[in-house]
Design brief:
Elements: H1 2-52, H2 59-62, H3 65-76, H4 79-112, H5 114-128, H6 136-143, H7 147-171, H8 175-183, H9 188-225, H10 231-240, H11 244-275
Helix pairs in contact: 3-11, 4-5, 4-7, 4-9, 4-10, 6-7, 7-9, 8-9, 9-10, 9-11, 10-11
Amino acid sequence: MATVTQHAVTEPDTAPRGRPARKRRTGGHRTLTVIALRVVVIIVALVLWQVMSGPVVPEYAVSKPTEVYDALTSMLGSATGWADIKVTTVEVLAGFGLGVAAGTVMGLVLGSFPLLGRVLEPLVAALNGIPKIALAPLFLLFFGIGPWSKITIAMTGVAFVVFYNVYLGLRLRERELVEVVQVMGGRRHHVLGYVTIPTLAAPFFAALKTGGPLAILGVIGGEFIASSEGVGHELFTAAQNLDAAAEFAGLIVLVALTLALNGVLSALDSYALKLLGLAARRRPQTTS
């Protein structure tokens, strides 16, 4: 009887232990399958591009993957190409950083003072309604064709996105939580740490991820209009020369820059949310 009782107790404990392992193996297998299918799709697209360029689509308009590879290799193998990439990267990072700082300050100030926010909000909305690329000639006249005109264009686009996320986040902050902290004797820094920052974390990082491509768009647009260096300048030159291979090579560089910036922001987002205790918790696996 003792042996039977022992088996009855221990068997349910050993059975569920194997199930999560099978689920983990299945999940890993699905991930590898998805990655393999993505690679297959890319290879098929490149093969179709190579075959259809010329017989179906004019080669001067779309070039060929082999020619794009040669143009990209030539760009990355020259000092001029890396100088252009460096200029564009510096302009994007500077414009993005200044835009985040300006938008955060504006959002915190107008969100913390409701009367000031109601007075200035229509003006901010009117300024935000102006296409940022339309301000490029004005910035070029004021700052010249140097990097500061592109930095300012990028900063303007990012600042409004960050501003609205921070401003609306403060306005939607739950007043009841603020009152609870104050009733418990909390001061301003307690309200900031326990209510304001956790409330603003998600919309703030969402604004950062949205602002990254806007910064790149502003810099490239400014370099298109008037510049003597940068990836945008090279793209404009390639378009004038009807050099589709160089055009696609520049676009690949911009895609890589966008993915790198988004990867850094995603990692920072995950780390900050985890630090604040706001990261999504995995549900415990249940067994049937």
